[in-house]
Design goal:
Helix 2 packs parallel to helix 3, helix 6 crosses helix 9 and helix 7 crosses helix 8. The chain folds into two domains: 135 residues, Response regulator (Rossmann fold, 3-Layer(aba) Sandwich), CATH 3.40.50.2300; 42 residues, Arc Repressor Mutant, subunit A, CATH 1.10.10. Helix content is 44%, strand content 15%.
């Protein structure tokens, strides 16, 4: 995919050499992406990412010999410092609880290692389209994460929800909807109150489940 825009800056967090090499090869084939770093040591990941400031981080979940953390936990720490950071889990594990945890932590994609060709497409969906990239069938795993209570949203609240779930910052939503940043923040607060949710990741899942945000297969 040729583009005049700046290439997508990708960072890989993966402890298996073979899997890392496979991802590197796929990224190097894409003319709209550039690999800016890799890390095989989970404990070093946050510092490396904060230093490099990539656009997208590819995250493995389970790291050999690490029992008190995992890739999802470390990505959540990155996200707190770099709110614009996009994350995609690339894992050999696809259990529902991991998918749910990942999206609650704020990732925008979850694909398996078994199909490395899906990697580039997932990165593009997450970065260019502000979309969510999931392997076909995985969206069902998100079904019971969000609030079960019925929620009625105003038209403006729906607009703010979609923009917020797509990854826009508060000031960007304000400019897009031609309202103040304070009004956007109040709408987000009301959305969280109405849904009973606390994090942006949970709101994204809720928006997917309730048809406000399209889920594109990876």
């Amino acid at each position: 995919m040729a583009s005049n825009a700046e290439p997508i800056r990708v960072f890989i967090l993966e402890d298996e050499g073979y899997s890392e090499e496979s991802m590197v090869n796929e990224i190097n084939k894409a003319d709209d992406m550039i690999l800016v770093g890799t890390c095989r040591v989970l404990e070093e990941a946050v510092d490396r990412v904060l230093e490099i400031k990539p656009d997208v981080v590819l995250i493995d979940v389970i790291f050999a010999g690490v029992y008190d953390s995992d890739g999802i936990v470390e990505f959540e720490r990155m996200k707190k410092k770099l709110p614009d950071l996009k994350g995609i889990v690339v894992s050999g594990y696809g259990e529902s609880k991991l998918v749910k945890r990942a999206f609650t932590a704020g990732v925008r994609g979850y694909i398996r290692k078994t199909d490395p060709r899906a990697l580039v497409g997932a990165i593009r969906k997450v970065w260019y389209d502000d979309d969510v990239a999931l392997e076909p069938g995985m969206e069902r795993y998100l079904a019971d994460v969000a609030s079960e209570k019925p929620v009625v949203l105003t038209e403006r609240q729906r607009e703010v929800l979609v923009a917020y779930a797509q990854g826009l910052m508060i000031k960007e939503i304000a400019a897009k909807l031609e309202i103040s940043e304070g009004t956007v923040k109040e709408h987000v607060r009301v959305l969280k109150d109405k849904t009973g949710l606390c994090t942006k990741g949970e709101l994204i899942i809720w928006a997917i489940r309730n048809g406000y945000l399209r889920v594109a297969p990876a």
